[in-house]
Structure formats: structure tokens, C-alpha cells
């Protein structure tokens, strides 16, 4: 279980999160909603160990994690995968889709990288002809699938999705959701989805949290 | 939603085709589009990303890059003789069409706003250029859900949703008879999506026309009078909205609606084809559960669905 407890974050003088807590167990899908600017993305970035909160702790299976980004041991960081809203902003435009997927594997100096990339690409339904292309030559949906394959690279126990299908058409959204659900069932992963769409929330999440209602202790 | 029979058309698009020449390929971006838009009509153009929806809008405004080859006609009616948007001189488009007779809500507002001016200055400048009092800025902004204080911010100080609403306000300020809204609700949360859609609907109820380009089928269902579904550069189904959402007839349109989370939430098997290498015949046939031998021949839009085996026709 990944838990955030008493998370407080301020940007300048504006406090966007004030003592917020939530937990995500393996195997469950939690939906997080709240109005624009309520701090949903910020909370997700804190959980992903990308943003250091002013107060509060993130812990996995009861062990508190200190630090963010590269100061956290790789074995801990790789237990969490993230899928962002805009694949264009989340992918290096100079790299081919295969290289985008391979990046986390190369950083970890893994062997058998090309076989693993082919395997990951197959999981998200990307064909070989797409893998040699760079982001400008594929659609948003195809690029988001590459970003999803990249998020799966180290087989994370928790996957955090920040409006990851908002800009996609219905068919691509359903495909991404299906791929994530298959992964979740194979690896007993916990999935957090942030979305504005009530229909998507109802269909996809096991339970729904409203950011405004989150108490100062974990639930 | 009312579907009144109208005899006049505001925009008549006939056999509109757009090709992009690349060094080693030709992109079939838009193929043989025939669409008529009447005053008061809200037409939603829906489809997957990369199907040619935005190119269609840009072709109508003469905003395509130099490697584009455009054929067909797009007659814009109004006072005086109709203008063919596809052959009109760029000076005419710039002086009398863009903004004035056809407004555009661009897809990425962040790149459409002048970064060194506040929203108020941008909006007042537009109002003044179109002979409206500057004092109306607050009213126009309020119509899209922006407060007077929001207007005093610079574009970089706006959230994505606020920038989107400012771009919409700028397009509405000249009160154009035809508005092209290219994904005007992307980045907005549901209450703001609905508010923006209601603004567009209101315009149509007052006699203006709107072409809403969107991937959001729920948005189209909320406000559209008619829906055109594009797949791989062509319109495959074009029908009144109520009938379309109750029972789509093209297998692609059916599959697209079935992908919605409040319907089957089922993805469409396979991939959309590359616009540089479209298959002969129906482009959806490789993914279509109803495909047969005759699908190797391109079906025409007769009268409102381009399919040899439309849903509802089979025994």
C-alpha cells in the first residue's frame, strides 16, 4: 500500500494542499476528482516522489520515504509508474518511440533491452512500424501508448494516471483503460486515476475520492 | 435541440480534398467532403485524432501550409455574391472573412494569444476593430465564464482552461455568422465544458452557425443538431444528432460510440490507417466486423452513411 499522510504543499503564498491524506492499495483502482486548480495533479506528483511537500510523508508498505526524485533509491522509485496528461510534453521529441520506451531500462543498465521493448510495445498494442517513428510522426493516442509502455518498463506496483486519457478520443481512451486493467490484473497493481469525467470515473474506479473531502488522516 | 428545415445555406462545401506533399509521400488529409451548414445549425465533426478534422477547418480559412494542395469548392453565402473560400484571394480572406465572417477558436490557445498583452487589451482591440464599444469586454468575457479580474492577467498567468476561454471570447467578439470551434473544450473540467458548449448553442439559437470540431462525443451529444463522423480523411456518416446517437449506422461510428465509458467502454480492434498509405476501398474494412468482399470498393455517402453494409440494413 502507498500512503500519503498530512500532505501540505504551497506554491509561493498559495497553499494548494493542506494536510491531505490518501492511500492506494495494490489491486484496487481509486478515482480522484476535484475542481480545476484543487491540487489533484500536485498530490499525484507528491505520491510519484516528484514533488517534495512542505509537510507530510509518503510511505510504501509502512516505510516512510525521505527525499524525492533521484535521492530516493531506484528500487523504491521504480515501484511507482506515472502517466501524464500530455504525452507531447512527457516525451523527448528527438527520440524514436522505441527509445522513449527503452529510456528507463537503459538508465537501469538492464540487459536484453530490445526484447523487453518489443514485449512492452506489444502490451500496449504498438506495432513495429510505429516504434521507429519519432513523436511528431504519430498521433497523441499512439504517443500516449508509448508513454504507458515506458511507465510499465520496471513493472511498477502502483500506476498513477493524471488525466491520462482526457485529450484522447473515446476509442483510444477505452484502449488505454483496457491495457491498464490487464496490467493491473497480471501484476496486482494499484491504479490511481485523476479525471474530470464522471462517466469515466464511475466505469473505471473501484472507489472515488473527492479532494475537497480528504481528511487529514489516511483512509 | 430543434431541427428546423431550412432552405438557405450559409456554407456549402463540395468535394473538398486536401493533400500534403511530403518529400517521400502524399498525406491524404481530407477527401471528397460534401457538407452544407445552415444558419442556426450546430454541426459537430467528430473522429479520432489525426482523421483530418482540424485540416478541414484550416482549409476553410486558407490557413494551410504551402505544401497543401486543396481542391473542391466551399461557398460562403452572405450579403452579396457568395465567396469560394478555397480560391478567394488571401487579401479578401484576411480583410473580410477571417474573424469577421468566420471566427476560429483555435485548438491550442496558448500559442494563439499575444504573450505581451493582457486579456483585456486583446479583447478590447478586437472589439474596437469590429466597431463595438470597448466597454463590452467584461460582458463578452462573462459570457465564457471569465471575471473582469481574469482579463487583467497576461496569457502566461492564465491556466490552460482560462486561456481556452479567452480564445473563445476573442473569436466571439466580432459576432461572426459562422464559428469554427476546434476542440474548444479541451483542458476544461466538466462544468466549464458544459458552459462553453451552452455559449455555442446559444449562438446557434440566435441564428449563427457553428462547426464544432471535437473528439468529445458527450460534448457533441449535448449541443449538436447534426453530426459528421470522419474516419481516415472522409466523412463516413452525417446525420441529425438525435438519430445518430440513438442508432449510428456506420460500423466505425457504432464502435466509436461503444467505446464511451457510459456505453460498452470497448476499444476498437486494430489501428487507424496511415493517411500516407490508405487501403483501397473502405479504410475501416480492416478493423470492421462486417467487412465483406465488396468493401474493397470505396463506398459513397448515400445518402448519409458511407458503407456497403450499414447497421440496420442487414436482415
Provide keyphrases for this structure.
heterodimer; A: 219 residues; alpha/beta; four-stranded antiparallel beta sheet; B: alpha/beta; Rossmann fold; 2 domains; six-stranded mixed beta sheet; globular; ABC_Ni/Peptide_Import (chain B); Nickel import system ATP-binding protein NikD (chain B)
CATH class of the largest domain in chain B: Alpha Beta
Percent helix range of chain B? 25-40%
CATH architecture of the largest domain in chain B: 3-Layer(aba) Sandwich
Total helical segments of chain A: 9
- Beta-strand percentage of chain A? 15-25%
Q: What spatial form of chain B do the alpha-carbon principal axes imply?
A: globular
**Alpha carbon gyration radius of chain A:** 17 Å
Separation, N- and C-terminal Cα atoms of chain A: 11 Å
Task: Please report the total strand number of chain A as a whole number.
Answer: 9
Q: Kindly report the oligomeric state of this protein.
A: heterodimer
Largest pleated sheet of chain A: 5 strands, parallel
Helix proportion of residues of chain A, in percent? 25-40%
Mean pLDDT of chain A: 91
Q: Structural class per helix/strand content of chain B?
A: alpha/beta
User: Roughly how many Å apart are the termini of chain B?
Assistant: 32 Å
Strand content of chain B: 15-25%
Amino acid at each position: 500500500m502507498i500512503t500519503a499522510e498530512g500532505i501540505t504543499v504551497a506554491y509561493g503564498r498559495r497553499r494548494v494542499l493542506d494536510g491531505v491524506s490518501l492511500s492506494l492499495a495494490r489491486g484496487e483502482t481509486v478515482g480522484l476528482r476535484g475542481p480545476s486548480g484543487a491540487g489533484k495533479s500536485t498530490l499525484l506528483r507528491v505520491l510519484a516522489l516528484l514533488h517534495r511537500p512542505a509537510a507530510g510523508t509518503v510511505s510504501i508498505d509502512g516505510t516512510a520515504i525521505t527525499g524525492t526524485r533521484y535521492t530516493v533509491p531506484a528500487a523504491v522509485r521504480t515501484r511507482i509508474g506515472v502517466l501524464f496528461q500530455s504525452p507531447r510534453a512527457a516525451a523527448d521529441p528527438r527520440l524514436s518511440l522505441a527509445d522513449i520506451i527503452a529510456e528507463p531500462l537503459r538508465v537501469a543498465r538492464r540487459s536484453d533491452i530490445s526484447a523487453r521493448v518489443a514485449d512492452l510495445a506489444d502490451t500496449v498494442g504498438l506495432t513495429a512500424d510505429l516504434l521507429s517513428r519519432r513523436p511528431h510522426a504519430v498521433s497523441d493516442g499512439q504517443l500516449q501508448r508509448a508513454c504507458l509502455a515506458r511507465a510499465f518498463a520496471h513493472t511498477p506496483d502502483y500506476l498513477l494516471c493524471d488525466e491520462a486519457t482526457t485529450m484522447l478520443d473515446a476509442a483510444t481512451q477505452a484502449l488505454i483503460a483496457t491495457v491498464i486493467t490487464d496490467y493491473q490484473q497480471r501484476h496486482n497493481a494499484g491504479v490511481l486515476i485523476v479525471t474530470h469525467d464522471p462517466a469515466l470515473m464511475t466505469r473505471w474506479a473501484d472507489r472515488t475520492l473527492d479532494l475537497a473531502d480528504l481528511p487529514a488522516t489516511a483512509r | 435541440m430543434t431541427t428546423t428545415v431550412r432552405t438557405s445555406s450559409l456554407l456549402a462545401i463540395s468535394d473538398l480534398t486536401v493533400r500534403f506533399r511530403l518529400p517521400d509521400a502524399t498525406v491524404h488529409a481530407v477527401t471528397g467532403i460534401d457538407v452544407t451548414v445552415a444558419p442556426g445549425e450546430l454541426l459537430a465533426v467528430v473522429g479520432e485524432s489525426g482523421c483530418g478534422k482540424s485540416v478541414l477547418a484550416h482549409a476553410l480559412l486558407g490557413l494551410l501550409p504551402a505544401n497543401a494542395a486543396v481542391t473542391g469548392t466551399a461557398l460562403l453565402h452572405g450579403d452579396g455574391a457568395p465567396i469560394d473560400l478555397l480560391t478567394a484571394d488571401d487579401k479578401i480572406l484576411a480583410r473580410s472573412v477571417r474573424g469577421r465572417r468566420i471566427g476560429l477558436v483555435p485548438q491550442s490557445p496558448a500559442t494563439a494569444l499575444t504573450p505581451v498583452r493582457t486579456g483585456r487589451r486583446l479583447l478590447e482591440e478586437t472589439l474596437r476593430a469590429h466597431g463595438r464599444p470597448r466597454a463590452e469586454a467584461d460582458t463578452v468575457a462573462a459570457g465564457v465564464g471569465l471575471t473582469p479580474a481574469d482579463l487583467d492577467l497576461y496569457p502566461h498567468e492564465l491556466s490552460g482552461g482560462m486561456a481556452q476561454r479567452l480564445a473563445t471570447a476573442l473569436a466571439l467578439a466580432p459576432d461572426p455568422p459562422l464559428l469554427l470551434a476546434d476542440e474548444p473544450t479541451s483542458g476544461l473540467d466538466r462544468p466549464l465544458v458544459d458552459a462553453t458548449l451552452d455559449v455555442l448553442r446559444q449562438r446557434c439559437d440566435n441564428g449563427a452557425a457553428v462547426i464544432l470540431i471535437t473528439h468529445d462525443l458527450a460534448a457533441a451529444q449535448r449541443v449538436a443538431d447534426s453530426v459528421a463522423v470522419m474516419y481516415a480523411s472522409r466523412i463516413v456518416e452525417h446525420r441529425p444528432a438525435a438519430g445518430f446517437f440513438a442508432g449510428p449506422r456506420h460500423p466505425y461510428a457504432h464502435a466509436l460510440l461503444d467505446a464511451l465509458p457510459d456505453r460498452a467502454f470497448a476499444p476498437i480492434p486494430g489501428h487507424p490507417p496511415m493517411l500516407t498509405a490508405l487501403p483501397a476501398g473502405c479504410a475501416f474494412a480492416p478493423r470492421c466486423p462486417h467487412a465483406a468482399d465488396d468493401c474493397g470498393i470505396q463506398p459513397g455517402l448515400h445518402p448519409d452513411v458511407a458503407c456497403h453494409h450499414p447497421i440496420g440494413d442487414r436482415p
